[in-house]
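During the reporting period the student researcher (J.K.) took over the structure-prediction task from the postdoctoral fellow and processed the backlog of single-chain submissions. One of the processed entries is reproduced below for the supervisory committee.
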Amino acid sequence: MCCFSWNGLRWEWVLVPVFALCGFWNARFAWRSGGYLTRSSAAGSVEPGLAVRLGFRRTLRPGRRRVHPPAVLLAAVALLSIVSGCFLLDRLGPSVAFAGAYIAVSILIALAVIDARSGYLPDALTLPLMWLGLAMAWGGHGQPASDALAGAMLGYVFLRVLFEVFRRLTGREGMGYGDFKLAAALGAWLGPSALLHALVLACLAGTAYACWRRAFHGGATSYPFGPFLAFGALPGLAGFTELQLPF
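J.K. obtained the following structure tokens:
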């Protein structure tokens, strides 16, 4: 694993508790934000930006009414945070690139949880994720700037075209506008080639899940696509380069 050391102590062992705490906090924040979005949607007034701000503020300063995410979710997000942090540290070392990529992974995980719970991908997280990727590329800490821009354009246009084709064929909307923005954000981080890998993985995972739901629950299937986009992009974003598709 990581070859970086500090007075003989490996970096990943020093930072594992930090990564775990970040994961626990991220899970609580995402769960709270998704809850606010779900309740505001049921009331007929959806304010995603406000929901994210409330989730952030009340996770920092929890009030009397505390919303605890499931223990399985806490453990899963903490584990993802630890593993992703260690892989990024091994690949990038303690650097600006590592800090930016780790923040991006954390935002991506939060978006997956929020979308899974509420069906929304708030602009308050997708747009900063995209601008952070473009800024890192411009500063020389990520993809080449041209690849980041091409990836952002490809991500948005690709899903938008699929959306329009599906709507014309079926008369229904197959995904939300937040999915386009998330794909653009992922393109800014991954570049066009790795983004295509991520989209293929996301479509395969989403199709498999839809078939499972139809087989066991019957009827029409409707589900958020954001978690599958996160599933497809996380290997490339977190440094699991050996999991990339061979093309």
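The committee noted the following: Residues 1-9, 242-247 have pLDDT under 50 and may be disordered.
J.K. will present the remaining backlog at the next meeting.
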